[in-house]
Amino acid sequence: MARPDLFPQAEYVSDTRSRLAFRLLMIAVTLVFLTGLVLLSYADYRRTAARAQQQLGHFTELFEQSLTASLAVANLKMWAVIDDISLLPLRYADNIDAYYGRRLRRAVDEIEQIDSLLLMNNDGTVLWSTTEQLVGVDLSDRSYFQKAAILGRDAFTVGMPLTSRATGRRLTPIAWPVISQGGETRGVIASSLGEAYFAELLSLRGIGDGTIVEIVTSDGETAFSSVQGDLPDQEGLMTASRPLPVSDLRIDVSQTRAAVMRSYWERTAAFGTIALILYFTVLMSAIRARAKSVLLAEGLKRSEHDRMQIKAAQREFDAIFENVGDGIVVFDDSGTLHRSNLAARRFLDASEDQTAVRRLRDRIPPLSDIPNDTASFRLHLPGSKGDAGPQAIQCRVTKLNLYGAVIAYCVLEDTSAQERLAETRLSFVTSVNHELRTPLTSLSGALDLLKGRFSDALPPEALKLISMASRNTERLLVLVNDILTLQAIDQQQLSIAREPVNLGQALAEAAATNAGYGVSRNVGIAVDPLPQGDDPVLMLDPVRLQQILANLISNAVKYSPSGGTVRLGLETAGDSVSLYVADTGPGIPFAARERLFDRFTTPIHPREVQASGTGLGLAITRELVQRHGGEITVTSRAQADGVRDSGTTFHVRFNRTDTQEGHA
Amino acid sequence: MKVLFVDDETDIRELIELAIMTEPDIEPTFAGSGLEALALLESQVFDIMLLDVMMPPPDGLDVLRAARANADQSGATIVMCTARTSAESEEEFRALGADHVLHKPFKPLKLADYLRGLG
């Protein structure tokens, strides 16, 4: 049975809503995560940039200090040289080399900051130089000469970078005034800071790749650059500047932004990758967990749904179980299962299952003694107060083997009503019988008397009418008798009084008894010769046997053609003894043989062939034969089936062993 | 022989009377009810009694009991006349003292011979 879905799935709408909420949440979390990632990266970028800037500042300061310190040392040393060469005025070039040449050359060797020297008088004329071709050249137009000429003691000047006239090298001039300890200015001594000097200074500082150091003049002229050739684009550079205190020079330390931020990008990429991997792992887990929880929730919901369906079915079953008309009691041997319904409790006058089971078990054999499958018991129960008197209960016990336990399933059926009904029916039939037979007795008796006593006084037409009335009275009696016989059979009240019966004599008696009926229809009744040397005597009810034969003979006579003969006979074959009644009538159509023995069956033959009868004769005959343990069969050749020499033979077969003399 | 016929059906009584009125050796007495029969049992002695079973009380069985309880009627042959055919009821009748059972409908022309056969 298809059970209707009592709980439609409307509640699943909330599910799609929660799925949408979950998606929005996931998107929001992802956005927050990405924003956080960007903000962190940006803050890191800013910090990294600031630190790089600071580092550049440190570098610059370091350079400036190194440079300043180096120049201060050079200054001290140079003033020692100046003190040595300023004792006398500078007048003659020849004299100078003779007087100071050694001292000056030693100075170039000793003072590492300088790589050359030129000594000029107050007019700007070179008096001595490490580069000999400059001697005599007038350098008074040079700005470092003009600046140095007006300086006081212990001071020096660094000039604008220029290209050397002698060597063509790029150099930065440095110049001191030559002032005697007496304060007398005698000229200017100049040198240059070559690229080699700066490079050495830088290399001492351990400046790495990617760092660009430039010494720049105030008008933007580059005195020194650590990079040969073109500088990278100014935009891609990060620069810290610091002015040199001693001159117009400024020191710039730059690093390409790419170099500064490389570590940042590397870090960010690594960090970002790890963060994203972690995030997506978590995200996927969340989604998977959510999917699982949704499945779980759906499963729960479905199981809840199923549970409610089961509950509804259970309630339905309980209602049916409780209110079914028959009593039902279910119990097992161990006493854990006891269930009964309303009818059963009423039959057993119990208010609860356990009492009902106990009372029932008191009245039936122990479970182990009850045969398997089904057993029936008749119980007479006192009945509860509401019922009228004791109840006849039919108890059908079915033993079931369920999960290793034996369970008894008992159906209690109130048969009181059935029995009362049967009694009523019996008394009804009995009284109908009486009420029918009494007038029939008078009627047939009166007709018999009329015919027997007064036939001489009656005209032939009256006699004919009396015969007709008499025949129909007989027919009515046969019908009443047939109905009574069948009722006795149905009520199991038909008694079979067995006694030894000689079958040959029984056949002769039947032939004689029914001869009158045959004569009235112009049909002979003949008994075939009995088997030689076999005169069977069986234990049968002689009255019933005559009834069987009379039924078969009267049928045979009815259907025999006028002038025909009904043959009776006996056949033996081993244990089996058969009586037969054969006619040469129209035969029974093959299709009708199945229902031949049914009560009040539809006519076997067409209207013009069908003989009148009660419609019960063969049904009764079969019942009677079967009550003797015998068997009735029919063989027939029917005109309706296209046969010319038609006829019907009924065989009534008994078993000698079943009906031996002495067999009760 | 004196025969008592008890039947509440007038037709049956008349039919029997017609059937045996030609038999000089049978002296019939008729009773139309159980009460009438009981009264006759007190005043006369019968050789044969033919009792209808189904009558308004007292019925044939009551008359049977009364007849068997009556010492004067101890020589009587009692036939229960009934439309019932079951073996059970026959046994019941015999247990109460009936000698024979005659099933209705019977042939009135054969009744006299039947009665003589009992005698």
UniProtKB/TrEMBL annotation, chain A:
It catalyses: ATP + protein L-histidine = ADP + protein N-phospho-L-histidine. The chain crosses the membrane at residues 20-43, 269-287. Keywords: Kinase, Membrane, Phosphoprotein, Transferase, Transmembrane, Transmembrane helix, Two-component regulatory system. GO terms for molecular function: phosphorelay sensor kinase activity. Gene3D superfamilies: 1.10.287.130, Histidine kinase-like ATPase, C-terminal domain, PAS domain. It comes from Primorskyibacter flagellatus. Pfam families: HATPase_c, HisKA. This is histidine kinase. PROSITE patterns: HIS_KIN (PS50109). Its EC number is 2.7.13.3. Residues 431-658 form the Histidine kinase domain. The keyword Transferase applies.
From TrEMBL, chain B:
SMART domains: REC (SM00448). The modification 4-aspartylphosphate is found at residue 52. One of its GO terms (biological process) is phosphorelay signal transduction system. It comes from the Bacteria. Pfam families: Response_reg. SUPFAM superfamilies: CheY-like. The keyword Iron does not apply. PANTHER family: REGULATORY PROTEIN, STRESS RESPONSE REGULATOR PROTEIN 1. This is Response regulator. It comes from Primorskyibacter flagellatus. The lineage of its organism: Bacteria, Pseudomonadati, Pseudomonadota, Alphaproteobacteria, Rhodobacterales.
